[in-house]
Write a structure and sequence with these properties.
Length: about 425
C-alpha cells in the first residue's frame, strides 16, 4: 500500500499542475493516470505490484463507479428526467441491446469465440461511461438535450447491463439455474434503496427538530450516499442503480443539499476515478496487450468505431437530432468503470475462458480511455461559440496559411470571379 499511495500522490500532484494545460488541449488527466499505472506496474518498472484478484482492485473500481453515478444523478431531477426521456429511452431501449449484439458478432467472427462468451463480452462492453467524456457532458455550450442524453444513458445502462452479464456468465459456467428472479430483485432493491433512503433523510432534515449547519451541509449528501452504499451491499441490491437513483432523488427533493454537495462531491468522485485508473493501468502489461493477437486489437477497434455508431444510427432514425449531435452521441460511448467491474467479476468466476474474456475487455477499455478522453475536448468545441482551440491548432493553421502564401495564394483574399462568357 505504501508504494501505491506514494505513486498516487505524486501522479495526482502532476495532474493538478498540468490540469490547466489539459483543459485547453487534448492532453487527458485520465490517460495520464492510466499510463502512469502501466509504466509503474508489474508490466514495466514493478513499483506497484497488483493482481486482478486483489480485493483492492475490485473494491476501488466499485467505489469509483458508485461515486461517479451518484454525482451524475444529481445533475438531473425527476422532473427533468420525466420530460426529457424520449432520447435516453431510444439509447437504452434500442442502442444498448444493439451495441451488445454487434459487439458479440465482432467477438465471434473476428476473434473466434463461442457465442456464449461473445455475448458475455458484448454485455460487459455495452455500458458507457460519461467520465471520459467529461468535457462534453460538463460543457454548458453543448445542447442540454445532448448532455442529458449522455448523462442519463450512462447512468442507467450500467445497471441494465448487469443482468445480461450475470445470465451469460451463468450459461458459460454451465449453470442450469439462471436465477432470473434474484437478478430482478437485485435491480428493484437497488432502485428502492436509492429512492427511499435519500427521500427520508431529506424529509427528516427539513423538519423543525433538525437542521444542518453551514459547515456540515456538504456532508449531508455524502452521508446519504454512504448509507445507500452500505445498505445496498448489505442487502445485495444493485449498487449502480441505487447510486444513480439516489443522486436523482437528492436533486429532486433536496435542492439545497444538491448545491452544497456539488463541488465537494465532484472532487471525491474525481479522486476515486483517478485512483481506479492508476490501479487498472498497473494491471496492464505488455504480455497482456500482446496476448490477444492482431484479431483482438481489430475487435477492440471495431467495438469502438463500429458497434456503438451503428447501434446509435439505427436507434435515432427520425429522432430529430442534428448530424453533429448524432455524431457526438455515436462516438462517445466510452468504456469505463462498469466494464472494469464486470470484467473483474468474470475473471473471478473461474470459467475456462475467463482469462481470455478479461484480456479482450482490458484491451478495449485501454483503447477507449486513450481515444475518448483525448477527443472529448475537441468534440465539445464543435458546440463552442467562442471556438477556443488548442495552441497546436493555431500553429498548424498559421503554417497552412504561410504555405499557401508562399505558393502565391492569399488565404484571406476572396476567390476570383469566373470570367464572363463572350456574348
Amino acid at each position: 500500500m505504501d508504494p501505491l499511495l506514494i505513486v498516487f500522490a505524486g501522479v495526482l500532484l502532476l495532474a493538478v499542475l498540468l490540469s490547466s494545460l489539459a483543459h485547453r488541449t487534448i492532453l487527458s488527466t485520465a490517460a495520464l493516470f492510466l499510463v502512469a499505472g502501466f509504466v509503474l506496474g508489474d508490466g514495466a518498472l514493478g513499483v506497484v505490484s497488483l493482481a486482478p484478484d486483489d480485493e483492492l482492485v475490485g473494491t476501488l473500481a466499485e467505489l469509483a463507479l458508485f461515486a461517479v453515478l451518484f454525482t451524475d444523478g444529481m445533475r438531473v431531477g425527476w422532473q427533468d428526467l420525466r420530460t426529457a426521456w424520449r432520447l435516453p429511452g431510444r439509447a437504452l431501449g434500442w442502442g444498448l441491446p444493439l451495441t451488445l449484439v454487434i459487439t458479440a458478432l465482432g467477438a465471434h467472427y473476428v476473434v473466434g469465440l463461442g457465442w456464449v462468451e461473445s455475448l458475455l463480452i458484448g454485455a460487459i462492453l455495452a455500458p458507457t461511461d460519461p467520465v471520459f467524456a467529461a468535457a462534453l457532458v460538463g460543457n454548458e455550450k453543448v445542447p442540454p438535450r445532448l448532455r442529458q442524453l449522455l448523462n442519463v444513458e450512462s447512468g442507467v445502462n450500467d445497471g441494465l447491463a448487469l443482468p445480461f452479464v450475470m445470465v451469460f456468465l451463468a450459461v458459460a459456467a454451465g449453470s442450469d439455474n439462471l436465477h432470473l428472479g434474484d437478478l430482478g430483485l437485485e435491480l428493484g432493491l437497488g432502485v428502492l434503496i436509492g429512492v427511499v433512503v435519500p427521500w427520508l433523510a431529506i424529509k427528516v432534515e427539513q423538519t423543525r427538530w433538525f437542521s444542518a449547519s453551514t459547515q456540515y451541509e456538504p456532508l449531508n449528501a455524502l452521508a446519504i450516499g454512504l448509507l445507500v452504499l452500505a445498505l445496498g451491499k448489505a442487502t445485495h441490491g444493485n449498487l449502480f442503480l441505487a447510486a444513480f437513483a439516489a443522486g436523482i432523488t437528492v436533486a429532486t427533493f433536496g435542492q439545497r443539499q444538491r448545491e452544497s454537495f456539488e463541488h465537494f462531491g465532484e472532487l471525491i468522485a474525481e479522486l476515486l476515478k483517478l485512483a481506479a485508473l492508476l490501479v487498472f493501468g498497473a494491471l496492464i502489461s505488455l504480455p497482456l496487450l500482446g496476448s490477444v493477437g492482431w484479431q483482438g486489437w481489430v475487435f477492440a477497434i471495431l467495438a469502438l468505431i463500429a458497434a456503438r455508431p451503428i447501434a446509435i444510427w439505427i436507434s435515432f432514425l427520425g429522432a430529430g437530432l442534428t448530424v453533429r449531435e448524432q455524431a457526438a452521441v455515436a462516438w462517445f460511448g466510452p468504456k469505463g468503470f462498469a466494464s472494469v467491474v464486470y470484467g473483474l467479476i468474470v475473471l473471478a468466476s473461474g470459467i475456462s475462458t475467463a482469462q481470455g474474456v478479461f484480456q479482450l475487455v482490458a484491451v478495449t477499455i485501454v483503447l477507449s480511455i486513450l481515444l475518448h478522453s483525448s477527443t472529448d475536448i475537441v468534440v465539445a468545441r464543435w458546440f463552442d461559440d467562442e471556438r477556443e482551440v488548442p495552441a497546436w491548432y493555431g500553429a498548424a493553421r498559421r503554417l497552412r496559411d504561410r504555405t499557401r502564401g508562399q505558393s502565391g495564394q492569399n488565404p484571406t483574399a476572396p476567390a476570383p470571379r469566373p470570367a464572363e462568357p463572350d456574348r
